[in-house]
Write a structure and sequence with these properties.
Elements: H1 3-20, E1 28-34, H2 41-52, E2 61-67, E3 70-73, E4 79-81, E5 97-101, E6 105-111
Helix pairs in contact: 1-2
Amino acid sequence: MHEIGIVRQLLRTVSAFAEENDIREIREVVVDCGELSLVIPDYVEQLYPSVVKGSILEGAGLTIHMIPGLAECEDCDEIFNVVEHRGYCPNCGSFQKTVLSGKEFTIREIVVPGQT
């Protein structure tokens, strides 16, 4: 389960940002998780409370936005959801594609008290 390493890195990144910006409290962390990233959001959510215990993120919420795995067919230029269509273009049946989105796992937002 590599998700524990991902949550630990999330904690390190947010903690460093908070220290650099003199932030003493964080209300929520919002992340983007791509369908094709091989990260299992349920595992991240389950691990999060125990990994951040005793840190600046203890008590802070975690929101995960799923980013669809979209690709463009190299044969017919159709844009399609890779997972939904099992990697094949629904228009022409080709497996040749360029992935456009869905591989990322990134911090979208760090919400601090008083921030609107």
